[in-house]
Each structure stands twice: as structure tokens, then as C-alpha cells.
């Protein structure tokens, strides 16, 4: 996939969001659930992979290990502030992606929040539950997400085939 393809796709999605924002159409929040859940899943899985294969890759300040859920909290704080400050169509999509990334980083270490331990058992206990929940959200928003993909994705026949198989199930 070329960078131009990704930028083109994001531009078309942004235009659709712009239309909904400017016309004050309903369904914008459901429309944004799909990019948030996709960003969450990609970030969550990436954080798990990096934590597993490169456990030495972390920020240490004066010997204190700064876990990536702290980055997630900062990103969530920033996305919340930006959502309150900017309400334009272009900012809406970018804030949705940023929010999904923050959720992925923060919730990846949810087990650590509850047990206040840094071990694999505490971390992995809740991963399945979080991934399952994110998949449920992605499935719930999939109809609108597939509609977006169908109108903006260049290989529309693939998206239509997947959507038809989901609707038949």
C-alpha cells in the first residue's frame, strides 16, 4: 500500500465527515466509532507485540520505568482538549484517530491499573477481554464503517463481498 493511497483514503473519509459536520447531520458519532476502534486495535496489538519482542524498549527517568499507559493518558488528555477546542471537520477525524491511539496505549496495561503489579499475568489477564470488547465495537460500527470503505476504498468489490457475507450471517 502506497502512502498516496492511504492519504487519498483519509482525504475521502475526511470529506465525508466534513459533509456531516457542515450539514449538522445525525450519525457523526457512530461514523467516528469505526476509526476510533480501528486505531485502538492497531495500537493495542502493536503495543503488545512491542512489549513482547522488545521489553527493553521503554522510557526510564531516574531509574523509574514509565509505562506506555502514561503516554496513553497524555494522549487522551490532549485529544479531549482538542475535541473541546476544535470542531471542524478536518480536526474531527484526526482527533478520533488520536483518541483511539490513546485508548490503545492506556488500556493495554489495564491489568496493571487494577493490580498495581508489573508482571505478565496482570497484563495478559485483561487483554482478551479488551480485544473482545474492541471487536464488538468494531462490529457494531461495521455497517457504517463498511459503508465508508465501500464509498472511499478503490477495491470496492472486496469490501462489498465482505459486507454481504457479514449481513448474511
Please characterize this protein's 3D structure:
The protein is mostly helical and 169 residues long. It has one domain (3-141). It has helices at 3-22, 28-53, 68-85, 89-108, 110-115, 120-124, 127-140, 142-152, 156-168, and strands at residues 59-61, 64-66. It has a two-stranded antiparallel ribbon with strand order 1-2. The longest helix is centred in the first third of the chain and has 26 residues, at 28-53. It is globular. It starts with a helix and ends with a helix. The mean pLDDT is 76.
Number of strands: 2
Give the helices and strands as they follow along the chain.
HHEEHHHHHHH
C-alpha end-to-end distance:
30 Å
Return the domain count.
Answer: 1
| Helical content band | over 70%
Strand and helix map with partners:
Layout: H1 3-22, H2 28-53, E1 59-61, E2 64-66, H3 68-85, H4 89-108, H5 110-115, H6 120-124, H7 127-140, H8 142-152, H9 156-168
Helix pairs in contact: 1-4, 2-4, 2-7, 2-8, 3-4, 8-9
Amino acid at each position: 500500500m502506497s502512502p498516496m493511497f492511504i492519504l487519498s483514503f483519509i482525504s475521502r473519509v475526511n470529506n465525508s465527515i466534513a459533509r456531516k459536520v457542515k450539514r449538522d447531520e445525525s450519525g457523526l458519532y457512530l461514523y467516528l466509532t469505526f476509526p476510533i476502534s480501528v486505531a485502538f486495535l492497531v495500537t493495542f496489538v502493536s503495543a503488545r507485540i512491542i512489549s513482547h519482542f522488545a521489553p527493553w524498549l521503554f522510557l526510564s527517568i531516574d531509574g523509574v520505568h514509565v509505562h506506555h499507559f502514561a503516554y496513553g493518558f497524555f494522549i487522551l488528555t490532549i485529544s479531549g482538549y482538542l475535541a473541546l477546542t476544535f470542531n471542524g471537520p478536518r480536526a474531527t477525524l484526526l482527533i478520533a484517530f488520536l483518541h483511539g491511539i490513546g485508548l490503545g496505549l492506556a488500556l493495554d496495561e489495564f491489568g496493571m491499573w487494577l493490580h498495581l503489579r508489573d508482571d505478565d499475568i496482570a497484563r495478559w489477564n485483561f487483554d482478551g477481554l479488551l480485544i473482545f470488547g474492541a471487536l464488538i465495537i468494531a462490529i457494531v460500527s461495521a455497517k457504517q464503517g463498511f459503508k465508508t470503505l465501500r464509498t472511499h476504498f478503490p477495491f470496492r468489490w472486496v469490501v462489498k463481498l465482505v459486507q454481504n457475507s457479514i449481513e448474511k450471517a
